[in-house]
Model the fold of this input.
Amino acid sequence: MGWTEPSQRAALPINGQEAGRTAKPGKQFYFTIDCDWVPGSHVGLAALLDCCDRFRIKATIFFAGRFAETYPDLVRECLQRGHQLGTHGWAHGGLEEDEDFRIASYEQQRQWIRRATDAVEKASGVRPVVFRAPNLWIGETTLRVLEEEGYHYDSSVPARRFDMGLGRVHYLKYFSAPRDPYRPSPSNLNHPGDSSIVEMPPSACLFPINLATLRTVGLSKFQRMIRWIGARSRHLVFYCHPSEFVLAAEQAFPRSMSKWNQNRMRPENLTLVKQLFDHILEIGYTPARITDTATRHLDVRTSGVVRAGRFQPERF
Done:
């Protein structure tokens, strides 16, 4: 599965339909995995790959550069199994002071992204074009760097999310951003604009649609959150971390990692993911990678009116 030349993209289908035909959009489920730089967590990724195979789900997997550098065979295996490769900072997860793309300088952000991009490309032979900022800490400078480094997709803007001090998203700057895929304004990620980047916000119902929430509130309440989102959007973006499926004692964490979170890391969490997959498929969602999205090109020339035209998805 190689890189697609720009000249070829116009001929690619939308949601399995030939260009020019109209198809009723269905609900899409994006299973995404954030591989932080946590030595020992690779065991959890291997288990997740087997789970995806069982349910025939192709994931979008974001690698911290140091993870890709340390476990290149596993990165290559992800590609061989049909998963989408992305980047997730350089050493996120293994530092006392984490990478903060909200406040870091342009040069610092470019260095982190370039090193991570090179690590994933060296491991897999494919240059990644999808990015997720560590902790979803992103800013307009990040968008500029991603554009200049040849990225096409981002999944970092924490739309409709506020953790109320319980998680990492404790600011409201991007709370009102669109919940569906959009091209952001280079001057304000909250608003649609003309960026070359397609933004796919991770789903949230105040709290994030991720494994941490699922294992805290339980499957029944989590299903209600999914229904709430499904009534407002046909896109559902879920994420988890390989470290959540491995006992904390078998991994290396910085001292800043909360003991509460470490105590909830265990292989049994894989059962929750399987139950989630069963539910998602039962209620009619179609699994997709982020680059498989039938994104709509947003026309914002008329104030207050958003019109949609077909946008051909890139496939890698």
